[in-house]
Amino acid sequence: MNNCIEKQIELHAPQSRVWQALVDHRQFGEWFGVSIEQPFALGKVSRGHITHPGYEHLIMAVTVLAIEPQRLFAYSWHPYAVDPTQDYSHETPTRVEFTLQPSATGTLLRLVESGFENVPAARRAEAFRMNEGGWSAQMSNIERYLGHGTAA
Prior knowledge:
Blueprint: E1 4-11, H1 15-23, H2 25-32, E2 34-36, E3 45-50, E4 59-68, E5 72-77, E6 94-103, E7 106-114, H3 121-146, E8 149-151
Antiparallel strand pairs: 1-7, 1-8, 2-3, 3-4, 4-5, 5-6, 6-7
Helix pairs in contact: 1-2
C-alpha cells in the first residue's frame, strides 16, 4: 500500500487568490466543508465542525506546521477520524501539504498527504482509501470555489 496521497490541479486563478482560499480559515471552510472557529496560526490547533451532510457531528482539528506565503501551507491531522467514541490523540498524525506554483493559466496547486505508515494497521487501509477519495473531491471543491481548472 502506498503511504502517500498526491493530487494536483491547475487552477485558473492567481496564486494570491488560491493562497487566500487555503489560509483564510473562513474561505478554507467554505470549499472544504468545515466551520473553522479561529484563524490558522503556525504551531496552533484550529478546529471546527464538519459541515458536510452526515458528518456534522464530527470536529476537524488540524495543527498548522508551515505557512510560507504564496508557496506552502501544511498541517497535521488524524486521517478519517470519524468514530466519535474513539480517542485518536495517541496516534501519529499525517502531514498535509499544499504547495502553489505559478502556471501558464494561473496556479498549480499540489496536495500531498504523507505518513499513513504511522496510522494504526487496523484502520490504515480505510483511512487511506477514504482520504484518497476525499482529496479528489476537495480538489474539485476548491476548483469550483475559485473558478474552473483542470485536475491531473
